[in-house]
Design brief:
8-stranded parallel barrel; binds erythose-4-phosphate; 11 helices; 54% helix; 8 strands
């Protein structure tokens, strides 16, 4: 399973990259707004750190404007993946960009049929937002499961990128279902490597050793 970090913060990206297990980065307009930096400049900086796919979301919502903004973003670096909202115009832009060899990440996916349509349009990634579905008492991981089945039924090659991940249990469920990628905040990436019994056990080992040998 590939692991992306979901942030536009350069320090967090560097910290995750230094762990040696980072495959890519996703950003969105809200994450960039938090950083208060021009989007294109930050994307250049991120691409200087991470060699894998870096998702860059368009601000435009109308087909032609999405196309030209997507093409501009794609010029920033070879690993840029143009992130488009899963709307009617977004799917149309996905098809046009994919036909030109530009990779796309179809974001804000909340139902399995959206995922089927973006796969038909040639999307490289689809981003089902599982945490936001859980927030409204729907089953986010069930959506991942439905998409996995549909993609396997028909041999769609679009990768399932589980997004809006809130905790390690989400990751576990996505990994069990067979999501191809997960994009995760740094805090949750760290939680994936921790357990209270690991800390307690280590403390005990060191205390025993200290007692015996000083
Ligand atoms: C994914 O690409 C999105 O940026 C992200 O996962 C959204 O997560 P949120 O629901 O925590 O904002």
């Amino acid at each position: 399973m590939e692991l992306y970090i979901d942030t536009a913060n350069l320090d967090e990206i560097k910290e995750a990259h230094d762990l040696g297990i980072l495959d890519g980065v996703t950003t969105n307009p809200s994450l960039i707004a938090k950083e208060g930096i021009e989007y294109g400049k930050r994307l250049e900086e991120i691409c200087g750190v991470v060699a894998g796919p870096v998702s860059a979301e368009v601000i435009a919502t109308e087909y032609k404007a999405m196309l030209s903004e997507g093409k501009e973003r794609a010029k920033i670096a070879p690993q840029i993946v143009v992130k488009l909202p899963t709307t009617v115009d977004g799917v149309k832009a996905c098809k046009a960009l994919s036909d030109e060899g530009i990779k796309t990440n179809m974001t804000l996916c909340f139902q399995a049929m959206q995922a089927m349509m973006v796969a038909k349009a040639g999307a490289f990634l689809v981003s089902p937002f599982i945490g936001r579905l859980d927030d409204i008492s729907q089953d986010g991981t069930e959506l991942i499961s439905q998409i996995r089945t549909i993609y396997d039924n028909y041999g769609f090659e679009t990768k399932i990128l589980a997004a809006s991940i809130r905790h390690p249990k989400h990751m576990l469920e996505c990994a069990m279902i067979g999501a191809d990628v997960a994009t995760v905040p740094l805090k949750v990436i760290k939680q994936l490597m921790q357990h209270p019994l690991t800390d307690k056990g280590l403390e005990q080992f060191l205390a025993d050793y200290q007692k015996a040998f000083g």
